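[worker-b] picked up task from shared queue
[worker-b] task type: protein-ligand structure
[worker-b] ligand name resolved to calcium ion; SMILES cross-checked against name lookup, match
[worker-b] sequence length check passed
[worker-b] input payload:
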Amino acid sequence: MNRALLLTVFVIFLTPIAIAQIPYFCGFEDTVENNNWQLGDVWDINQAHIGNAVAYSGNNSLYISDDGGLTNSYTPDQGEPFAFREIYFTPGFSKYQIDFDCKGGGDMQGFMRVFLGSTAVSGFLSEAPFWTHHSITVDSSFAGIQQLGFKFTYYTYLNPAGAIDNISIKGINHTTPEQLSTTDITSHSARLTWHSSSIEVPQTYLLAYRAEANTAYTETLLSATDTDFQLTNLAASNWYVWKVRTQYANNEWSEWSTEKAFKTLASIPYFCDFEDTTENKNWTIRNGANCEFDNYGGVYFAQDYYNRWFIGTPSAVTDNTLLYISGDDGISNTYNFQGYSFVWAYRDIYFEPGYAQYQLSLDFKGMGQDGQDYVKLFLDTPAIPPVDYYHSTVTFTQIGVELNRSEQWTHKSFTVDSTHSGA
Ligand SMILES: [Ca+2]
Ligand SMILES: [Ca+2]
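[worker-b] inference finished, payload out:
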């Protein structure tokens, strides 16, 4: 029997994509270089986009967009759009540094992340809703051709839309400080800690910090044994940014570490009548669908609450901005009976120690059925509250009784003891 050997040649001519060499820089201002970036998950609502909707410098950056690149905005969704670029990490360096400016903010369900191939080389980039500088150090095992990827994950409404600019990659010989951590945040102070993470012996550290609104950093030279620094005299309710670098023998310096951002708490006496838009932004609202998608059996879906918190002026109210519940998307201060709602409004405040008691008061108006429809006040250490009434337990300390059955505005006042001092 004769057998035919069939050979088919099928060739697709693609535009060749140049593999970048290090030192590499990309500010997304060069169209030729921009075309070397490949964008993935392009069928999703949210797409990674290179364009001019937002930029740290110049006109362009790589950002998330749900309208084809027109604006830097997103819709909570399951997709994970990403952008990647092939880079040749020239062998011969003990370490490589990947630097970039990043605008993010978010939480555990909304973040950006950096990958080399399938390896995540950054933590969740979800700390600051404004531009900060990030620095990642990887070791010599990454020498060779690597696919550098930026992945966007947005299951929640809590985070501002992300953007990346000014990516720089180079070989380095000294490790930057790592594991930067901000703890013990009050209205006017914070504790900063870091680790040397190097087999080299540090000589000194240079710490630099600034308020978000400032461009200039305040620098402090510290001894090699100081990996713990207390920042004081900070302004309340303000964002701060800090970074640190290491000095080694022969006056050689490491590059700056990644920047860490944190926000100081409100101080007491605290007053909020919701008339100050800057202060209103310090309130966090978790409104069911406005807040996160839950995972049951691998399926993500929205917690779709009918009644939600809003800060604004509902219809039938004039000259007064309020924190209020609305069953019609914020239009009026009315309640929708179609389903249960379990929503939160909260603010982190530092209760300056030294007082025997603290007084909380507020004006309240609202009807409701005892045990079923109410507003509860809680006071506890800062934490993200649960959003699912049926699958969670609230362990926060409740203050006073349930608020309801007040048809007219009523002034409510509560006194708590000194065990509530602190954050
Ligand atoms: Ca740029
Ligand atoms: Ca008001």
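[worker-b] attaching auto-annotations
[worker-b] The first helix runs from residue 31 to 34.
[worker-b] releasing lock
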